[in-house]
Amino acid sequence: MSIRKVVKYGTPSLREPSKEVHKVSQKVKSIVEDLLDTMYKENGVGLAAPQIGENLRIFVIDVSTGDEPLNPMVFINPKIIKKSGAVISHEGCLSFPEAFTDVKRYANVMVKALDRNGRSFVLEAKDGTLLARCIQHEFDHLNGVLFIDHVINRFDAEAQLSEHNLPPLELDKILEEPELEPEIEKLLEEKTKQEEKQK
Ligand code: NI
After folding, report:
1. How far is the CA of 94 from the centre of ligand 1 (A)?
2. Which pLDDT score is estimated for 1?
3. Do the domain assignments include residue 55?
């Protein structure tokens, strides 16, 4: 068990797809422990193996808050088997220290994975909760996809990146998301109306 260095945006390995885990071996278990230790040390809600320099399909999440007991969740070889709805998610990432921007996410996801003992489980996260959004964020890391690839406002994202001395957006990586786009437009319109009302 040890705290590992978190790889920062700009490092090529963050863009590489990660490999399937063939066996939940001692080595895999120790990577899981390192991920959890590092996530807690950095006050993150999620961390994926490529972020500690291990290009394997593993991520961990803990969305417990305040006085709640810790609730570490381990996902090995995860697959998203269902997704629906849309939500605007204000996100950051331990590989992008202090930079935050709004991104497009599905509101509901169902994920299938192995736990740290190699047992298969299915988990459903709904209504755009932190857990639902976090699963998508961490899952993306295993495919070399980063949260800024789902950006809503490129100007805001560029400003955040430059303010925190991070490399600029990689425009060729920004995803076309036709299933999310109309829903996100609606949500943005509602948000604008609400903001105008408050004035
Ligand atoms: Ni991240």
Report:
1. 6
2. 72
3. yes
